[in-house]
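Subject line: Sequence and fold of a protein, written as structure tokens
Enclosed: The protein record, placed directly beneath this head.
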Amino acid sequence: IERHFDFSAGEIAVRVTRNGELSDATVNAQIAGTTQNVAGGRTYVSATSNPRVLKVASGTYDVTVKSVEVRNAPPHVFESVVVNGGERTSLEHAFESGIVRIGVNRSGALVDAVVNVIQADGSSAGGGRTYTAASSNPKEIVVTPGTYTLRIWEVRGDDRELPVDVAAGEIVEVLIDLDL
């Protein structure tokens, strides 16, 4: 009986962009149809690491890409990716995002406030604090394109809630004066 086994490795090269630029994401290869990871890494935003190249044995894999930069971006899964020994399989995924820039003041003075971008299902797409320094007020939050509700709570007690639409590649600036 003669049997032949091919243990030669192949490569999965995953390039990730966001709004046309290289983007930071995690990349994981699982044996197809399972959750068993066999290789993984991050793309970062450098051409030296994006595309992220994963060396794997010949076989069929599901490859999951998750954005590090856009918290509410759903993971993207490439299913049943076939990898042959000695060959490179190239994949590419493009995330889209926009930025909500939220500034909070009272009569022109910067205000320490908690800001939150709420999705239609009520979950948070991102948030943070504005503080009283120009380095943090306005606060920028990167989200997927869509319609959101902004919730702003001044640390001293005032609050506001308002809708905002975010388009891909756009910056939406929202400046709130709590005295108005």
Observations:
- The first strand starts at residue 9 and ends at 18.
- The mean pLDDT is 95.
- DSSP finds no helices and 16 strands in the chain.
